[in-house]
Amino acid sequence: MKQNLIRNFAIIAHIDHGKSTLADRIMEQTQTISARESKAQLLDDMQVEQAHGITVKSRTVRNFYQADNGVEYEYNLIDTPGHVDFTYEVSKSLAASDGAILLVDATQGVQAQTVANLRLAQENHLTILPVINKIDNAAAEVDKTEREIRALSPKLYEAKIYRISAKTGKGVHEVLEAIHQVFPAPSGQTQAPLKALVFDSFYDSFKGVIAYIRIVNGNLKLGQQVKLMAANTAIQNKEIGVFTPSRTATDELTVGDVGYIITGLKDPTSLRVGDTLTDANQPTAEAFPGYKPAQPMVYAGFYPKDDAYRDLELAIEKLSLNDSSFQYVRETSEALGQGFRCSFLGIFHLQIIRERLKDEYGLNVLTTAPNVTYRVHLKDTNEVQIVNNPIAFPGFAKIDYVEEPFSNIRITTDNAVLGDVMKLADAHKGQLTDMGNQAELIVLHYRIPTAEIAYDFFNALKSISHGYATLETEFADYEPADVVKVEVAINYSVVDALSFIVHREDAPAMTQQLVKKLKHTIPRHLYPMPAQAIVEGKSIARVDIPPLRKNAAVNGEKRSISKKQALLRRQSMNKRQAEKSNIKLSQDVFDSILDISL
Ligand SMILES: Nc1nc2c(ncn2[C@@H]2O[C@H](COP(=O)(O)OP(=O)(O)OP(=O)(O)O)[C@@H](O)[C@H]2O)c(=O)[nH]1
């Protein structure tokens, strides 16, 4: 029976431990692709992935492996992203797998993301195949890494641990053999009604919404009438197929197969990952529970440059289908016009989306300063407003108190930089809740305001630990906080899109730095303009943005009285016009808000 010959598995690892390289080797050794093709790291084909050298979006590929026992197996490999912001993608791809290769870089050993991904795999009841990578590297510490892996769980303590170089291919054959020996075959029923898990989706500009599916029970035939159960939508069944790794059409997908269906849906929002695909006439009795929606951490406004609102809207719709942790609603700002308030899993996720808009859709967006969600309790009505847009933050006179989100974070670091890491967490208002060891690393647990880790915390942590420390975050709860809204006024008029929320105690120092930066980033005009930071109606920081030219009327040059008077008249006319004129806001201006650190 074909089902017994299928293995569905993922590769999980810490960032840069070599998942994509191993995926390439597997495709090469199973002749799915040629060695020449694999040079280009086929799985990482999105431009943004190549620019950052990382995997953002999960990919799936079917390989046929001729095993040493003479049997040909179908290996469905699901590549997963490794960055901490993409844990959500990892958990989706794991739901479609039966096993996971736990890949650990021998030069780095077990890292925090190794542990986090292992936990996700265990939650999905996957069989784990531990593999040590980069054994060819002079800095490899293979025995030490092996001890660290064994210390992770009782099962791993006894497991056979494979040693490979994904780069040279050494040891990869043994891993290919282990895959069919260690991982279970899919367990579904051939005779039952069709039940398939939608574990990912993609928008194609010609073909519309394409769903990535794993057949759990029954068969899917081309043309069969099918529907999505949660969305209760009938879909067309014009093309089904598998990934080789490009899409290749087939007539049928059977139990255990991983492939795709072109749904005919044109609206990217009409399909949700986690939905169940089933037969329209003979539906399965029980649908999948669906995925927990991702918990967004950071919100920011995206505004089109060059009047491309409609193009931006379409692109954002498509990206949010392709990446279900990225969501949006429409918003309007007086300063910037129509735009979108978007949610992200973290600041790195935001950057990736921004780059994808540029690379894949040719769109430049203006991004406002990111913020977290606040719960604002109002005085008179006892109403609680959920605010993730500083523009909508209620006036201070109406506010009873505000709650801000807190996160539990876990930093894994080595001893050498422990002091600096703790100083960083302190500076960001972290309260140390626990401290322990994992393998030879120190694990620190903090409770910390989410706003403190939402922006540059991760980069700061990477930089003080020379790239080694890792960060895992988890939303904890809301807690009352003394936060205020800072409004920025330029030439006495408030620019709404520049508003942001900050802890009251940090407001004086932050706004001083901000106005200094604004002095250099706000485009100069012919007249001087004050830039002010206003908190609760009071200006707490101010700087004068100098005019473009020297003020000829007062600079002491020898001029006739009448010439000076003429200049003064012209300047006062400029000033009056200025009140009406719009300040052109560049990305630099918004970045001034982000850059300020205490
Ligand atoms: N020396 C050596 N280098 C390797 C080996 N495997 C991968 N690398 C290198 O390690 C780096 C990261 O490899 P990738 O395969 O891109 O890592 P990844 O885990 O897919 O990275 P993300 O997708 O960003 O999580 C690349 O520069 C690879 O060339 C190996 O076996 N030996």
UniProtKB/TrEMBL annotation:
Membrane topology: Peripheral membrane protein
Annotated positions binding GTP: 16-21, 133-136
Biological processes, Gene Ontology terms: positive regulation of translation
Tr-type G domain boundaries: 4-187
UniProt cross-references to InterPro entries, sorted A to Z: EF-4, EFG_III/V, EFG_V-like, EFTu-like_2, LepA_C_sf, LepA_CTD, P-loop_NTPase, Small_GTP-bd
One Pfam family matching this protein: EFG_C
Lineage: superkingdom: Bacteria
Subcellular location: Cell membrane
Entry EC no(s): 3.6.5.n1
Gene3D superfamilies per UniProt: 3.30.70.240, Elongation factor 4, C-terminal domain, Elongation Factor G (Translational Gtpase), domain 3, P-loop containing nucleotide triphosphate hydrolases, Translation factors
Keywords of the record: Cell membrane, Elongation factor, GTP-binding, Hydrolase, Membrane, Nucleotide-binding, Protein biosynthesis
Transmembrane residue ranges: none
A GO cellular component annotation in the UniProt record: plasma membrane
Enzymatic reactions: GTP + H2O = GDP + phosphate + H(+)
Molecular function GO terms recorded: GTP binding; GTPase activity; ribosome binding; translation elongation factor activity
Role this protein plays: Required for accurate and efficient protein synthesis under certain stress conditions. May act as a fidelity factor of the translation reaction, by catalyzing a one-codon backward translocation of tRNAs on improperly translocated ribosomes. Back-translocation proceeds from a post-translocation (POST) complex to a pre-translocation (PRE) complex, thus giving elongation factor G a second chance to translocate the tRNAs correctly. Binds to ribosomes in a GTP-dependent manner.
Stated family: Belongs to the TRAFAC class translation factor GTPase superfamily. Classic translation factor GTPase family. LepA subfamily.
Protein name: Elongation factor 4
